[in-house]
Amino acid sequence: MKNVKRSLVGLTVLSAIAASLCCITPILAIVAGSAGLASTFSWLAPARPYLIGLTVVVLGLAWYQHLRKKGGRRAGFMTGETAVTPGDVDCACETPGRSSFLQSTSFLVLITLFAALALTFPYYGGDLLPRRPASPSSQGALVAVARDTAQVQHVVMWIPSMDCEACAKGIAYEVKQVPGVLQARVSYPEKKAWIDFDPRLTGLTQLDSVINATGYPVEKQEVVTR
Q: Where on the phi/psi map is residue 33: left (φ > 0), alpha (ψ -120 to 50), or beta?
């Protein structure tokens, strides 16, 4: 029984990490200054729904095994008998004290919290990116554009390879660091980026290169008027 529970817990951790690895990597890559590694595990994205389902099922089985074993012990105590099910005692060489925490409810609660944090990472991961002050050139661009709004250009870029919200926030984070970019919004559901920029400081080629460097290439772009 102990070995089964350990296997279920281990599988829960692995599946939860695998389900979110495609979304965790972009954030870690940007924080580490290696945005090109962002899409390293993007091949896991199509399997994410199945990995989430596997995590939930395996975690449910772990809780079922734990509560059933705990209920059996309580029943044995109430009846004055010792409830021992096959598999409770693996061998005489095990030291019960060493694995007591790993068999406890507290440990299973921690695993459940870890799985929940891992699975929901795409929704809050982008908020963990460090805040950078606007560069002097960008501040100067804002002043210049405020005086001459006719210089502002607007472009829409299609990025179909984005995997999750964390990817979109990571791309927006990188684009906003480009001098001359005044505003950038990236939508994962729509697979698009809307960028306002001063063509005197940057251009479409540079913006395209910055986005491609994150590992999520631009499929097409279109300059729009407002």
A: left
CA separation (Å) from 99 to 3, 59, 102, 105?
Answer: 11, 19, 5, 12
Q: Is 57 exposed, middle or buried (0-12, 13-18, 19+ CB in 10 A)?
A: middle
Report the residue count for the chain: 226
Distance CA 81, CA 169 (A): 58
Q: Are residues 93 and 6 in contact, defined by beta-carbon separation less than 8 angstroms?
A: no
The one-letter amino acid code at 156 reads V
Block residue for tokens 């993007």: 42
| Strand ranges, E, within the chain | 153-158, 181-187, 192-197, 220-224
End-to-end CA distance of the chain: 66
Q: Are 35 and 174 in contact (CB under 8 A)?
A: yes
- Cβ contact 202:159 at 8 Å: no
Structure tokens at 219: 């499929």
pTM above 0.70, yes or no: no
199: left (phi over 0), alpha (psi -120 to 50) or beta: alpha
Give pLDDT tens digits for 67-120: 888 776 666 555 555 445 555 545 545 444 445 777 788 888 999 999 998 888
Q: DSSP states of 47-59 as a string?
A: GHHHHHHHHHHHH
